[in-house]
C-alpha cells in the first residue's frame, strides 16, 4: 500500500496544562509536531479535496483536544491527541507526535513527550 506523510511543525497554541500552582491558574504555550502516515486509496484530483486527507480537519482536532479542558500531565495529553486522531481519521496508519512546553525551563528550548503509534489491523 502506498502512503503519504502529512506533517505539522511547531503548531503553537496556548493550553491549560500542568500540576504546579501557576500552571493551574493560567494557560501556557505548547508546540506540537506530528507526522501522519496516510494510506493512498485513490489518485489525487487537484480539483477535489475529498481525494486527500484534509489537514485543516486534522489541525482542528489537535487544537480542540489540546484546549478543551485542563490536563495535568503532558503524557496524558499526548495519549489523548493520539487516540483522537486514530479514532477520527481511519486513513491514518501511523502517528509520530511530540508535544513540548517551550517555557518549562529557562535553560533549554523546550521539554516534552513524544509518542509513536501504528494502527492495529
TrEMBL record:
**Which terms in the Gene Ontology molecular function aspect does this entry carry?**
dihydroneopterin aldolase activity
Pathway participation: Cofactor biosynthesis; tetrahydrofolate biosynthesis; 2-amino-4-hydroxy-6-hydroxymethyl-7,8-dihydropteridine diphosphate from 7,8-dihydroneopterin triphosphate: step 3/4
Q: What is its EC number?
A: 4.1.2.25
GO biological process terms, alphabetically, are: folic acid biosynthetic process; tetrahydrofolate biosynthetic process
Catalytic activity, as annotated: 7,8-dihydroneopterin = 6-hydroxymethyl-7,8-dihydropterin + glycolaldehyde
Q: Which UniProt keywords apply?
A: Folate biosynthesis, Lyase
Pfam families associated with the record: FolB
The record's Gene Ontology cellular component field reads:
cytoplasm
Where is each Dihydroneopterin aldolase/epimerase domain found? 6-117
Record flagged with keyword RNA-binding: no
Entry's family note: Belongs to the DHNA family.
What does this protein do, in the record's words? Catalyzes the conversion of 7,8-dihydroneopterin to 6-hydroxymethyl-7,8-dihydropterin.
List the protein's name: 7,8-dihydroneopterin aldolase
**The species this protein was found in:** Pusillimonas minor
Amino acid at each position: 500500500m502506498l502512503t503519504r506523510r502529512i506533517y505539522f511543525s511547531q503548531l503553537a497554541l496556548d493550553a491549560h496544562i500542568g500540576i504546579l500552582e501557576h500552571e493551574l491558574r493560567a494557560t501556557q504555550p505548547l508546540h506540537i509536531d506530528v507526522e501522519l502516515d496516510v494510506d493512498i486509496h485513490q489518485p489525487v484530483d487537484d480539483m477535489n479535496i475529498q481525494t486527500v486527507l484534509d489537514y485543516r480537519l486534522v489541525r482542528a482536532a489537535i487544537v480542540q483536544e489540546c484546549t478543551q479542558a485542563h490536563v495535568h500531565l503532558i503524557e496524558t495529553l499526548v495519549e489523548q491527541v493520539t487516540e483522537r486522531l486514530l479514532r477520527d481519521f481511519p486513513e491514518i496508519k501511523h502517528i509520530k507526535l511530540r508535544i513540548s512546553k517551550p517555557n518549562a525551563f529557562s535553560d533549554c528550548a523546550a521539554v516534552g513527550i513524544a509518542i509513536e503509534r501504528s494502527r492495529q489491523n
